[in-house]
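Allow me, if you will, to draw on your knowledge of protein folds for a short while. The matter concerns a single protein, recorded as an amino acid sequence and a row of backbone structure tokens. Kindly check, if you would, that the fold set down in the tokens agrees with what the sequence suggests. You will find the record immediately after this paragraph.
***
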Amino acid sequence: MRVSEGNLTQQYYCDYLEILAEEILSASVTEEVRRGVHENIVFRNLFLHRMGVDGGFHARVISAILHQPDDSRLLMDLLMASKQVDTDVLPVEEWLKQEYASAVDKQNSARMVAVEALLRSYISGTNQAAEIIASAGDSHPQSWWQLETRRITIAEVANPDMYFGVGRRPFWHEFPLDRYAAVVAGVPDLLPHEIYDCVVCIAGAWFSSLTREEMITWLNMPQPTLSEWETLCAPLLKCDTPDAALSTANWLYASGNNDPAMDLYANITLAFPGTPAEISSFELIGTILRKLGDYDNAFEAYKNAFIASRGAGGYQTAIGLKNLCEVGEDLGEDMSDYYTRIAGIADMLPVSEKLRLYLDLAASCRRRHAYEKEYRYLEQVLDAEDEDDEDLVAAAMSRLSEMNMSLSADGTPDTLLLAAKDEESESSVSVTRGTAAYFGFDPASALMWYERSGSSHISSLQFAAAMAAGVDAEEYAKTPSQRAVVLAAEGSPVTEIIRELNVAVTDAWRSGEDAVQVFEQIIPYLTPDQMSTVFVEVTARSTRDDERAVVCSAAAKALLSAGYVNEARTMLRAALRANPGREMRSRLFAELGWLEYESGVYSASVDAYDGALKINDQFPAAWAGRARALACMGKYDEALVAAGYAVVQNPSNGSYQHLRAALETVSGSPVDPATDLLFVLPEPGYLQAAAARYSVKKTNSCPPAVWNVSNVEDVLPMRF
């Protein structure tokens, strides 16, 4: 069976989760072993994420596999076996539903847990397998394990904000060395995503064999250096065709790794002379050098591309001359004779190639801000009226329409206005590339793109990239909170860190902003001893009770987000001791109730919600939270009453309606709260972004085998 976007990967993932689930569900497993298993799943999830988003990391892993005889043999065998499979592609979601139904039929509880974890993760776009597996058959709710996951990541993984910034579900790229592995296996014509499935499958097996310390080392490994890229890319130059090497060089160039890209392009010109890859490699070397301002060497690269293109046809010759014109003008040379030659070549080209050439020349003029010349080239494309090249004509018409919106009084393109728009567009593209590089675990490239953008609206991400890249981030620290992070990272005295944080928190309070982000930035850089001291001092505000309560609440949210539950609880109780006003005091009790619920301490959660309701009995969110906590304690009648109050006070809230309906179904029934199924609604507070979790009731008269798997909600039995 071939499953798009990860057949063998998903199958292997299910297999190893099945083994772990069996260990977890075993009654003999101790709490210490259970936590160890959960930690291993966390590391495996993070590894799959890095394999999906970081091409440099991916290349390092596949290189390590290819250099190990046993792992290399496994990969080769798997690639050849994948080639022999000849079935239709089945979407991942449908395949997982079928796997779940099969596990239900066979009464394989461990397999059910594993597939449920994968299916829910696939649907949500975020890998939640660690939390779901760990909470199976455990007294702690999934949310408690989610907090544990974040705590482990903060404690063990460098730059954890990268992991938390995006979902941990891998997405597809054609990575370096993948195609080479397929060539070595004798199956070079496999589709890219099929090769990727095999690579990640074996990579997962390889990673699982490492020690805990080795796993952490690999997860924290930065981008390869230039010399490392030379070693990683060397096998690509031994292939019969340049495709794998050229696609890898293009990936390096697109991701901002200019030095290794140029090195690989140069080696391609030596390894594959007389091929189209030689021409394009010289051209791209010239493009990179020109962007770096090295116009003399760029001219030489373009000249080599022009010489190599002899005999490649008139269009390629004209493109070579165009490139020479561009860099020649950068050097201050008069290139009018070259443009005359290009015009002569254009007259002899077929119509389709002529239009492509005119569009290329128009794009060249746009880069040089020669908008009047660009306009004339675009008009020539429209004048051709070639019906067989509608896409080219449409592109020219679209750009002309855009330029017509920026004409001067005399009807000519307004150079200043168009240049400003292009600069803004280029800046936006650079910011986008920088953000993609940052969350792709390449902070050095991210920093380069951010600096190239010249934007003043990315200071926070630019600072984060500088910190992650390990450069001197002091020059990027524009705010007191960022300066506090720099001090913490440098190991400065706690008093200096506290001084900057105090300023940052006070500024946030005065401007009405949320101080949560101030605390979130600093947490990964504080030791446990520093954390206690810093938070006590920074939250010890002046005599303004509400101010101290707000700051303590913000600190609690940041700590809980990082997985520090006990520390967050301490901050909330400190906020209550500040004796704030009634409205804030009620909200703080509700937040404490939510924290205790997420931690699985349901009786304390009920007590906290009761504290909120004593102050304000017209608080529907507190009634709903109390109902949910009571239901987890098996007190369904009391929970139904509380849910009823929530619905009466806010009848337009659909989640409250769902909660009451579910409680009406189970009220009065002997149900086990650890396995029964209930609607759970999101609540205001720290985890407001958590998705609502829906399910159906499981009874002896309605076994799982009869569930209708056409519906996601029917497939996934959800626990408290």
Summary: The longest helix spans residues 415-439. DSSP finds 37 helices and two strands in the chain. The chain has a mean pLDDT of 83.
